[in-house]
Amino acid sequence: MTLGYMPGFGNDFETEAAPGALPQGQNSPQRCAYGLYAEQLSGSPFTAPRGTNERSWLYRIRPSVRHTSRFRRVEVPFWKTAPHVVDHGLPLGPLRWDPVPMPNEALTFVTGLRTMTTAGDVYTQVGMAAHVMLVTASMVDDYFYNADGELMVVPQSGELLFFTELGRIKVGPGEIAVIPRGMKFKVELVDGPVRGYVCENYGAKFTLPERGPIGANCLANPRDFKTPVAAFEEKETACRLTVKWCGSFNTCEIGHSPLDVVAWHGNYTPYKYDLRTFSPVGALLFDHPDPSIFTVLTAPSGEAGTANIDFVIFPERWMVAEHSFRPPWYHMNIMSEFMGLIYGQYDAKETGFVPGGMSLHNCMLPHGPDKPAFDKASFSELKPVKLTGTMAFMFETRFPQQLTEFAARLPGLQDDYPECWNGLDRNFDPARPEWPAPGARAGE
Ligand SMILES: O=C(O)Cc1cc(O)ccc1O
Ligand SMILES: [Fe+2]
């Protein structure tokens, strides 16, 4: 299957899967070509400023009102929504998990999401949830949309095909897909089970961060974001549509596929992005800048510089800083850091944090390089070094992240994680400013 994409971030796109299906010069013709119905999907309030105003016009076989019927509540027990504060009994502290093993049961994208943390409040449209994604089965006659937020999907192993109302997107490890709030879709496996991470954003949409003095290029460049061309499914058999709405799951039976958009135009769209096209900018002479230099996308809150969510990556890059401790510094942060590893090794923790694993360094909880990373970085020769074949990421939010029962009970929770800092002992000797003392090496 060939998949077509259009480049650009937040462009005003137009595309049609049948010639002449897209009206020209107006949104609402008296009669649409092919007898299609015109429908607007509003991703922002009508009156949002131009820079954040998002909507698309969909020309479809049936209007969305015919893609729902009477809903019944269903249980999707592992997908939790903020506010969700449970007494999980774990003591406060930094947390790290091994990868969650792939289960044997059939799990779709919807039933296979396992919430790790929630933050903020879905009712006031602030905050986020971090999920593990375990998909072993394609959605066949099942369709879904999320009224609670957009979904950023970060596969770690295996490929997924998203068939959305606006077209098809294939993503694999090293790529992300973003599906807007309210957009119907189904998810198919390409060639085997998929594991990954999902960030559910209850707040304002992800957008590109400002580049400030960096200028017009580098970091995530707009042309590397890809939006699908129109594609639709003509299916007149029994289907189900499930809607996540304020944390509840609601299903209805319909007699056709809701993916029936033959043409569309607008700027409220799903998209994919290859994280390897991110052009990092970093320390060229000395010191370790704040990790915000690696922000791919930011979901702003109302407060300047205080993101509801920053999506940050740690891609492969050269380390060249002179007379500097090169890995992340020791840190306490007002923002809460949920991290995952897609492939390779993370320089602050070369062992213990493995692909498919996760860590949580919550609001104002100390963290930083483990003892082996400290020793290596303190004593290695500072020639240029390339960190190759690595891709870690962080969902960083201004809100404290609340652990779910699922996360607290995972067998892969590493009880001994805090011990990775054992041995970072006192070196201080008021009589010896030079450390280690000439001829000696710390700890030897
Ligand atoms: O490893 C982490 O926890 C994330 C992180 C990265 C970095 O470059 C600086 C500080 C920081 O907390
Ligand atoms: Fe940090």
Automatic annotation (TrEMBL):
InterPro entries noted in UniProt: HgmA_C, HgmA_N, Homogentis_dOase, Homogentis_dOase_bac, RmlC-like_jellyroll, RmlC_Cupin_sf
Catalytic activity annotation: homogentisate + O2 = 4-maleylacetoacetate + H(+)
Residue ranges occupied by any Homogentisate 1,2-dioxygenase N-terminal domain in the UniProt entry: 5-275
Pathway: Amino-acid degradation; L-phenylalanine degradation; acetoacetate and fumarate from L-phenylalanine: step 4/6
Catalytic class of the enzyme: oxidoreductase
Residues that bind homogentisate: 346, 367
Binding site for Fe cation: 331, 337
Residue ranges of every copy of the Homogentisate 1,2-dioxygenase C-terminal domain listed in the record: 277-428
Cofactor(s) demanded: Fe cation
GO molecular function list: homogentisate 1,2-dioxygenase activity; iron ion binding
Catalytic residue list: 288 (proton acceptor)
Main function: Involved in the catabolism of homogentisate (2,5-dihydroxyphenylacetate or 2,5-OH-PhAc), a central intermediate in the degradation of phenylalanine and tyrosine. Catalyzes the oxidative ring cleavage of the aromatic ring of homogentisate to yield maleylacetoacetate.
Subunit: Hexamer; dimer of trimers.
Entry protein name: Homogentisate 1,2-dioxygenase
Biological source species: Prosthecodimorpha hirschii
